């Protein structure tokens, strides 16, 4: 979502870094460029003015002028100002005794039902017993949709009773929550295409009955500044406690996220970052600011890897590599692990410093679709061919290409890629433990006694 803004700011700071002396005039020029970049990213004008005033007041101070790297100091000032603008993290408020009620509200199509399922799954993984409840009696099959989301992710959903009104469903959900000893009851309310009085009256009535501990507004990031108007309207009548910003992985300009907290006073609590049931992040202003300024998001990358990657499978593959064994089954396993992480380009953006290589990445056309195509090629091989790739000659290549729906050239490219990786694995084996230790040190890999590879004796812990 912040790619366009991040690219603009990167160019501005690159230009600033080439300045020998950071004068007040240079700071003013930089502030004008940042202002334009923010406005083009659809950030509200009052927010932009306040942000620029905040940054400029610090950027012209003696600390910046006398610092070793004035341009880097300005980047830090902008980063800290972004963190203040986005606001401190605000965790959900859970009751120490009894059930916590979370009411999800928003316009139709904003992603309430999907977000309700994602939130329930997240809370369940944190050890909470969650009951999902659909109050949408208007949209065809809306209740069935939430029931399917629940079933697909091992979640509990309130049974559907035909003919009940939203208020009756709410009352039944609260009773079921108490009798079933649920920690959290999530109420997925109906949305509308527009904010209207009838919709608000119904939601207010539901709020009065449910007395929710959290009222979360689900907003589509693609709405831009309209998101601020929607948030203001809902907050004025319902008193929302937090915002779930969805489709953050889309092509929105990012202005909504930078404007919402400042203009409404309501914290953003979650970000919907993809279609998967696990693609819901707790909002963290620092991590978002890091992404905007191209500093990556190592924490997010590690969290994604720990959640999606099969640790035992990864360790087994690593052990085979260190022993100099590497066949197409191992290559297939690596591809499947990468695909589980989600959008490959989005993952690469989490790596610090990758923005400067964006042009090369785009040129390389790296994508999950390309990885899936390579998976299809390997899956079209026999177990024997995967174990012994050297037997794959012309006739076998034609059969494999036909089975995968690709050309023989695609098969050749994959086999060449495999050969290159296999050669690297052989070099690793020749290096031995001491050589591997030296290599890992040079790569800056952080290791400790908890590393599974060390426990098996692969690497001794470094000092």
Overview of the structural elements:
This protein is an alpha/beta fold and 463 residues long. It folds into three domains: 3-86, Four Helix Bundle (Hemerythrin (Met), subunit A) (Up-down Bundle), CATH 1.20.120; 100-288, P-loop containing nucleotide triphosphate hydrolases (Rossmann fold); 301-431, Signal recognition particle, SRP54 subunit, M-domain (434 Repressor (Amino-terminal Domain)), CATH 1.10.260.30. It is 58% helix and 8% strand. It has helices at residues 3-17, 24-40, 45-59, 62-65, 70-86, 112-125, 142-152, 166-179, 197-210, 226-238, 255-264, 285-292, 298-308, 311-322, 328-340, 344-349, 358-364, 368-379, 383-387, 394-404, 408-443, 452-455; strands spanning 100-105, 130-134, 156-157, 184-188, 214-220, 242-246, 268-272, 280-282. The protein has an eight-stranded mixed β-sheet with strand order 3-2-4-1-5-6-7-8, with helices on both faces. Strand 5, helix 10 (226-238) and strand 6 form a beta-alpha-beta unit. Helix 5 (70-86) crosses helix 12, helix 18 (368-379) packs across helix 20 (394-404) and helix 20 packs across helix 21. The chain starts with a helix and ends in an 8-residue tail after the last helix. The relative contact order is 0.09. Mean pLDDT is 80; it is low at 296-302 and 439-463.
